[in-house]
Specification:
Layout lengths: L1 E12 L2 E12 L3 E5 L6 H8 L7 E6 L2 E2 L5 H6 L2 E4 L11 H8 L9 H11 L1 H5 L10 H13 L5 E5 L7 H16 L3 E5 L3 H7 L2 E6 L2 E6 L1 H6 L1 H7 L5
Parallel strand pairs: 3-8, 3-9, 6-7, 7-8
Antiparallel strand pairs: 1-2, 1-4, 4-5, 9-10
Helix pairs in contact: 3-6, 7-8
Bound molecules: adenosine-5'-triphosphate.
The site of adenosine-5'-triphosphate (ATP) has 12 residues, from strand 2 and helix 1.
């Protein structure tokens, strides 16, 4: 069953359409992966779903409610949280302040301390560094913090924009382990990724976007058999 349904979304920067009528769906409880080259529109799609960018046209239904063009706070309030590209933690705030910032829309403020405690249980390194400025963390730690900050919103759907970008292979393994773990715990995940080999280890369904259009939609098996994808994304092992 689809929890997120995107239909014919067009998002433009000025006159340039970065998304030219994108339609796709994300199944509840699954990991859906969006592949695509640089500049294809992946980040634009994530920002459109999150309410940071307004689409010119189209529908974004989450649990049946239309979120297209709604402000980010409404989208988060509905249970959709973004882990942005390049991590984007608040560098001059401490680890713990970043986590609290992720919970700012929560109505059940009383439960925030126990959620912070469970983040620390998952990521002991963040606990060790709780008073440290986020800007002084390593890239991998910042990514863990960016994921944790999104989790503080208790999302039903987690949008992750290239969480492995620029990280060392061992850290990438860690990130993907966490993605799988969160999914096993019941969070639906929509993942942007350029590392198709890693994505194949976790994702249940794939889309490929090129120049603002979805050009492939299929299962991991279908993806591995597609000649174009094989050549462009699976040519060499990482
Ligand atoms: P990457 O993997 O490099 O992050 P992407 O698939 O996420 O790429 P987008 O960042 O969504 O791609 O960009 C899609 C298109 O929109 C590109 O042609 C890009 O140049 C353009 N674009 C992105 N941001 C802006 C902006 N702020 N102003 C104008 N054009 C933009």
């Amino acid at each position: 069953m689809a929890v997120l349904e995107i239909n014919d979304i067009v998002t433009a920067y000025g006159k340039i359409e970065a998304l030219k009528g994108v339609s796709l769906s994300v199944a509840e409880g699954k990991i859906t992966c969006l592949l695509g080259p640089n500049g294809a529109g992946k980040t634009t799609l994530m920002m459109t779903i999150s309410g940071i960018l307004k689409p010119q046209r189209g529908a974004i239904r989450f649990n049946g409610q239309d979120l297209a063009g709604k402000p980010a706070r409404t989208v988060v309030g509905q249970g959709v949280a973004l882990v942005p590209e390049n991590r984007l933690v608040f560098p001059e705030m401490t680890v713990e302040e970043n986590l609290k910032a992720g919970a700012y829309l929560r109505r059940d403020a009383g439960k925030v301390p126990s959620d912070i405690a469970s983040v620390y249980e998952r990521f002991p390194r963040l606990q060790e560094r709780r008073e440290q400025y986020a800007g002084t963390l390593s890239g991998g730690e910042q990514q863990m913090l960016a994921i944790s900050r999104a989790l503080m919103a208790r999302p039903k759907l987690l949008l992750m924009d290239e969480p492995s970008l620029g990280l060392a292979p061992l850290i990438v393994e860690d990130i993907f382990r966490i993605v799988r773990e969160l999914n096993n715990e019941g969070t639906t995940i929509f993942l942007v990724e350029q590392n198709a080999h890693m994505a194949l280890q976790v994702a249940h369904h794939f889309y490929l976007i090129e120049q603002g259009k979805i050009v492939f939609d299929g299962s991991p098996d279908e993806m591995e058999e597609d000649e174009v994808i094989k050549r462009a994304y699976l040519g060499s092992k990482v």
